[in-house]
C-alpha cells in the first residue's frame, strides 16, 4: 500500500508516540521539516500520560530517548531532521534504584563496586562471571565463589537482566533466530549463523525497527519504535553464547546487522561494542565485531575515529538516483560524500578495510554498467565487497538477481582487482536472513515512488 507522506507521518506519529514525543520534548521543535514535527507543542502532562508507567523502566533511555529520532525517513522528509546527531554522553543505566550491570563498561563497574565499599578485585570477579568463563550469570544467585556480602549487595542494588527469551526458531541451514522480549513488551530478533569454517556469528539488533526506510528491507517497513539500550545490545551476544554455544560451538563474530541502524543509536552501540571486546569479559576480537551502516556520514566519521571495531557500509547502488530511491538516507548524505569521507578517513589507516555490502536487486542495480561504476566508486578505498542475494519478504517489490548474473557481476569486479565475495541467503525459511527481521504492524512505512525506468523491472515481481 502506498501512503502519502503526511498520512504516514500522522499514523506512525501515533504508533510510535513514546519515542517521538520524547523527541519533541527534547528538541523543542527545532526542526519543522516533517508534518509531525510541525504540530503545535504538547504540554508535559500530556507527555506523561502518553508515556505511561513503563517510561521509567529503563532510565538509561533518558539518553537514548532524548536523542532526536524521527519515526521514519521518507520521500517528503528530505533529511533536514537531525538523524542521530546525539552527542550526549551515556548516563549510568538504572532500573528503579538498581544499576543495570550490562550497561556498564568495566571501569564503570569497578567504580560502582568501589562506591559500595568493595575492592576492585571483586569487580573483576563479578565481570568474569557476567561475561567470561562460560558462566554468563543472569542473576546474583549464579555468582559462584563471590563473597557472601558482596553477593547480597548485588542482589539488592544490581539488575542482571535486560532481555527475556521468547522463542528460538531454527532454519533448515542451521541458522537460529532468537526472539527476545524487552521490559516494555517490545520484541527484538537476534540471529546466530553457524559456519562450517568454525566461525559462528551473532547478528545483533540495535533498535526496535528502523527509521531509514530502505525500500528493500523488511525491518524498514516497521518504522522506528525505539533505540536499544547498551545492556539490551550486550545481552543479545551474552545470551546467544549462553543459549547456543553448546549446540553451535563458540560464537566468535558479532555483526550489527540485525534490526536497526546502529549509527542512529551511536552512543549505546559504541559502548556495547566496547563491552564486547573487553579482554577480561566477552573478549571478541575488535576485527570480528562489525558495525554496519546505511551511511550516516558524521556518525561514520566518529565511529572510525573512536572505535577499533570493523565497519561495513551498505552501498547497494551506484548512482544517486537509484540510491535516493532505495535508501532515502542518500538524500541527506550522497554517494560522493559518503565515499569521499571513507577515502579521507581510511587513507592513513594501516591494515583496515571497510566492507561494502551490495544487495543485488534484479533490474535495479545489477547491470554491467553498475559493476563498472562500482569499481570507479570504490577506487582508492581499502575495501572488500560482499554481493548479497536479496531476501524476499511479503510486500517487497524487488526480486533477487539470478545466480549466474551475480557471478558475472562478481567477475567484472574481481577482474578489476576488487576483493569481492558472494553471500547467499542464510536462514531465510525462518525469516532470519538479512533484511527479513522484525514484524511490521498494520501500518507500514511508505513505499516510495519507483523511478519510471525501473517500473518494468519491479512490475514483474509484484
Ligand atoms: N542498518 C544497517 C544494518 C542492518 S541491515 C545497514 O543497513 O547497514 C544489514 C544488511 O542487510 C544491510 O547491508 C542491508 O543492505 C541488508 N539488507 C536489508 N534488506 C535486505 C534484504 N531484503 N535482502 C538482503 N539484504 C538485505
Ligand atoms: Fe534500516 Fe538497514 Fe533496513 Fe535500511 S537496510 S531500513 S538502514 S535496517
Automatic annotation (TrEMBL):
InterPro entries (alphabetical): Aldolase_TIM (IPR013785), Methyltransferase_A (IPR040072), RNA_MTrfase_RlmN (IPR027492), rRNA_lsu_MTrfase_RlmN/Cfr (IPR004383), rSAM (IPR007197), rSAM_sf (IPR058240)
Domain Radical SAM core span(s) in chain numbering: 196-429
GO CC entries: cytoplasm
Protein name as annotated: Uncharacterized protein isoform X3
Pfam families associated with the record: Radical_SAM (PF04055)
CDD domains: Radical_SAM
GO molecular function: 4 iron, 4 sulfur cluster binding; metal ion binding; RNA methyltransferase activity
Cofactor(s) this protein requires: [4Fe-4S] cluster
Region (Disordered): 73-96
Subcellular location as annotated: Cytoplasm
Composition-biased stretches (Basic and acidic residues): 85-94
Alphabetic keyword roster: 4Fe-4S, Cytoplasm, Iron, Iron-sulfur, Metal-binding, Methyltransferase, rRNA processing, S-adenosyl-L-methionine, Transferase
Biological process terms in GO annotation: rRNA base methylation; tRNA methylation
PANTHER family reported for this sequence: 23S RRNA METHYLTRANSFERASE (PTHR30544), RADICAL SAM SUPERFAMILY PROTEIN (PTHR30544:SF9)
